[in-house]
Amino acid sequence: MNFEIILHSGLATGTILLFAGIGAIFAERSGILNLGVEGMMLLGAMAGFSVSLSSGNAWVGLLVAMFAAGILSLAHGLVTIHFQADQVVSGLSLTFLGTGLALVLGEGLTGQNPPLIPDVSIPLLSQIPFLGPVFFENHSILVFVGYLFAPLSWYYIHKTRPGMHLRAVGQKPSAADTMGISVYGVRYFYTFVGGCLAGLAGATISLSVSPGWYSSQTTSGQGWIAIALVIFAQWNPLRAALGGYLFGAIRRGILDLQGPALLFGFANPLYVNSNLGFFLQMTPFLLTIVALVMGSRAAARKRLGSPAALGVPYVRGERGH
Amino acid sequence: MNLPFSIRFEKRTDDVPKWLPAATAIGSVVIAFLISGIVLAFIGGEPLRVLKFFFEATFGNWAVFSDTMVKATPLIMIGLACAVAFKMKLWNIGAEGQFYAGAFFASLVVLVPLVPPDAPKVITLGAMVVMGMIGGAIWGFFPGFLKARYNVNEIITTLMLNYVAIFWNNFWIFDKWSDAGFQMTPTFPKTAWLPRLADLAREYPVFSGITLHVGVIFGLIAAVVMWWVFKRSRWGYEINLIGDNPEAARYAGLNITRNIILVMMVSGALAGLAGMSEISGVVHRLQEKISAGYGFTGIIVAWLAKLNPFAVIIVSILFGALIVAGREIQPAGLAYLLQGIILFMVISSDVLLRYQVRIVRKEQETV
Amino acid sequence: MEDTPYAVEMKDIVIRFPGVLANDHVNLTLKKGEIHALLGENGAGKSTLMNVLAGLYKPSSGTINIHGETVNFNSPKDAIAKGIGMVHQHFMLVPTQSVTENILLGLDDPKFIMNLAEYDKKILALQDQYGLKVDPTAKIWHLSVGEQQRVEILKTLYRGANILIFDEPTAVLAPQEIDDLIQTMRSMVAMGKSIIFISHKLQEVTAVADRLTVLRKGVATAEGISIAGVTREKLAELMVGREVVFRVEKKPQKAGDVVLSVESVSAENNKGIKALNKISLELRKGEILGVAGVAGNGQSELAEVITGLRPCTGSIKINGEEVANQPPSKAIKSGVSHIPEDRTKVGTAPNLTITENTIMKNYGEAPIGNGWSINFTEAREYARGLKKAYDILAPSVRTMARKLSGGNLQKVILAREISSSPKMMVAVQPTRGLDVGAIEAIQTLLLDQRERGTAILLVSEELEELLSLSDRIAVIYEGEIMGIVDAEGADINELGLMMTGTKRSAQ
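Output (structure tokens, whole complex):
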């Protein structure tokens, strides 16, 4: 069990959760709950893979992946913003739609080898002792994008005017409305952003971190973990990034636990009976529940928690919000 | 374009016409089929041939109809499970996991064994029913408790437990109770098999090969019970009230915590019963794949049926048909896509229940 | 652009919503430098008319001229651009953001990076100009209601508004604060602003307005009449359409034994701040104890600890039985009825029928409750009886609660709460937002209960109502009782002082 490898791997797989999670943060901050992340991620994974194959350019694939997922999320936006349908069920339908489209259109992609997003190392930084190789050596370009994206997102949300408007729409849409801000416009925009980022997360999987197309196994529940991560992160992009990296590291750690015959000097039960590995596989999901409980209790204690208008359709003139 | 009238979308002021919810449900299905057909044509398939095949493969003769009903059986129970949870605005996405939990606990009766192997069929099956429901109830209890006590989002917790249930199941069938190293337990003894029409083949040859089993009776009974709960029982009233306005329910003295846990347990128990029905009536063993995504399809069934127990039966038959036909139809993801489109259409069409289209003649403006 | 003495001219305005005609050919004019009152009872259409002026709705027909120029507002931004600023009744403020952030919401400057410190200074300067003091860096949810209102006003002034609309501004203020507000309005007018002041309270309107327009059920019954020579009686008649009796009949009655005893109770509000501070009071059989106070001083929390909806320390006894920190079912079993502050969010279930709403507390008892089931035929009979007795207007008992008007919904709640023959009632803002007819009905019902010996704790923001209904009035301020006086012969000034924190001197 090499901790450096675990951390390194965690940063890579965590980037997936980072993109999907921050995308969800943007959408939820505007008041729209989109549970379809898993479906949009899968769609993004497939679209990125497929377009990279047909165009010969992984970056084009990436862009199309983002766009496809973004467009799909607009359907959710229309139904929840204009039709004011229940956001939970609409998001679930999006999961089905995204997954279904991905599986149908992705027929025959398994085993193909399209161009991928390359791995790079940053010259000076990767020479820093201990941290250098872990953080800056041999990572997908997207991982480095993630390093910048999280703090930039935080800054955008908390220190800029558009970020202030975003927060206002999610907290008290009537206040934003009377000051001339288009509540619907803001919500559509960030729903789209959330969708694009989910698509990006998916493409990060298939074109970079875990390359390949494995049908529904490609995302294997990470979209849902990303949604839980948002609550754990208290809608803060920096915490979402950290949480994502932590989860990634844990998942790698679990894999590595099954390998060696000796574990910290004791006989490794997993080495003896590989079926015990199933319990390890449960761990990320149980941990998600733990993270969620922690996040919910923190929210209750601080009494602030989620954006006040999250999940509530906005109608001008109605009492309440 | 200066028309003598204008079209307006307005919030509905009178009551929703009684036929509208059913019409939107049926309309959603029709449109979903249309869209799927278009997608199919887009990727080079033949929609009309597929549609014809669909009807032949699902309702064409008694044998395939029985297959459809066999697939519908777990859907009825899971649809009811989702319906009772959704009535109280508890989003139970974990019916799949509760199904597996129910299957596992029911299997324990045979695998441990909890009941002597030579016990009469009624005892064995009865024990399996009870254990199946207990297993599902336990699986529903945990998310319910977390929600009631700590307001933890039940969508995620129930979903996560789906994965946990499957891995849990896998361990036991790969390891301790594996049948010679295969990923499944040995076939259950006949006393653990739910009776099916094929059993009567000797007296009634027409039933030969018909796999319809007693599980469907469970489903029908459950539907009647849930109908009574929703419409006539005190508990059903409480569920309605809490689902509509939990603040008011609390003010009225209802115990919300207790009800959340209870509803999640009942929901889980119904899904668990479906699990027991499936292993005892269909596969006759515990194995890795016992669900064709019933837990998720059940969500759509409940929503399309507008949480009405009897409508759940009808919708389950439709989706049972989709599953039967979907086994043969390429590409594999089409059934999934179809379900997604149906659900999407249903929620979009809900807007028609809240808004009405009014054509207003322009001269009529002055009152 | 013509040269005109009118800042605003609204001509022939018709506003139609699905199923209701909110404004029917209304004319309203606002002269430059005047305070124009828009009067009418709840539901008359005043807020709707002003929402059109503020750019939130478009009229179905009619024209609007601002300083002589015909305008067509497509959004609030257009109205703001023309110098119109609205101070809403329910504040449009984001609770988690600071004063400065709220004031800067929706503007173009600063464009991207929010360097708040610079703007904090600008806002302080603005405050000095108008005498409206509040800390720019404070988060809204920390501020008192009066301070929040100041932020609402500053929002409009920062945008250069010269036409200001105040929508029911005094509802949340103590008498002294109302005087301050009137002063502020007068000084704004002196600086060249024009003000429209929406209210349903006659005494305030007569104190400050130059001209008035009265709306009744969407129609203007008086347009721009001068305040000179108009009596309150005439105004009331214009508002309601018939002679209005100002006081309900209250028979003198001796209070009986103590029913409710609140001793040294402390509790926190939803934000974790102390809302009740070792508060004590007693309520007796057959009396109405009014609780007066500016919104946010602990009244809501007081009602909630008594009815079991909020935890607390201290003792609350009903007929000798301890009910503090017990679930609501305990209070209900002890014979306490509760008319909650929010009739739609707490008091009723919107998508349930009238029947289902009326049996909310007694669905377990025969003949409605029958073992595990509910006999809905009996329930409907019961509901029909209540509908008739309380004159609830609705197509049938199968009608969903959300279709009912405020007054009828409140009657459903009262019907339900009274028919359990309670020993004690907690009524919080029972007549808020209702028209005069409904108010009279509710007040009569409360007095009726008092005569039958029910002890009533009445929390209300309308001092007039408290004075006419209560036997004694307790004033609450920052979670403590400042003093309790007899309603008979109570001095409004003294009450006002107590409402703003002056303790009653020991007698």
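Chain C has 17 helices and 22 strands.
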